[in-house]
Amino acid sequence: MMKHTSRYVWIAALLMLVVVSLYANVIRERPTAENKSGHIVIRWYTVDETGVQKFEVLRRAGTTGDFRIIGVVDQLKGSNSMYEFIDKDAFKVTAGIYQYRIRVINGQNPPPETEIVTVSHLSSAAKRTWGSIKAMFR
């Protein structure tokens, strides 16, 4: 009896490892996000896109609350590719901190998502105002 139980434990562990590695092999590491020219640029790199139908880019303002889909990338490039999504609407949201993640649509339910990446963003108007305030104290 004990022999069979340990065999089932090993099989379950192996299956879990396979499922985790299937997701881990889609996107390499976590995505990056940077404030660039008044917009936020989100980048991610893939390893194996087998079975991937599309990527959804998710954002939330601040560090709490729900993520919303702000974009879909369905023009797949194939394995070992770099993807870039430019969030041009971030400055329209009031918060200065944004969090992003990428959802992989590949038939799994629920669809796997990457780790959260955080970026601080100031719109051009906020930068100019801050620059003016700093100039007053020089």
Derived structural class = alpha+beta
Order of helices and strands: HEEEEEEEH
Number of strands: 7
Task: Please describe the biggest sheet, giving its number of strands, its sense, and whether it closes into a barrel.
Answer: 4 strands, antiparallel
Spatial strand sequence of the major β-sheet: 4-3-6-7
Shape: globular
What percent strand?
35-45%
Poorly predicted residue ranges: 12-24
Range of helix content: 25-40%
- The average pLDDT score comes to 80
Distance between the amino and carboxyl termini: 80 Å
Task: Please provide a written account of the structure.
This protein is an alpha+beta fold and 138 residues long. Helix content is 26%, strand content 37%. The protein is built from 2 helices and 7 strands. The chain has helices at 2-24, 124-136, and strands at 27-36, 39-46, 54-61, 68-73, 82-87, 97-105, 117-120. Strands 4-3-6-7 form a 4-stranded antiparallel sheet, with no helix packed on it. Mean pLDDT is 80; it is low at 12-24.
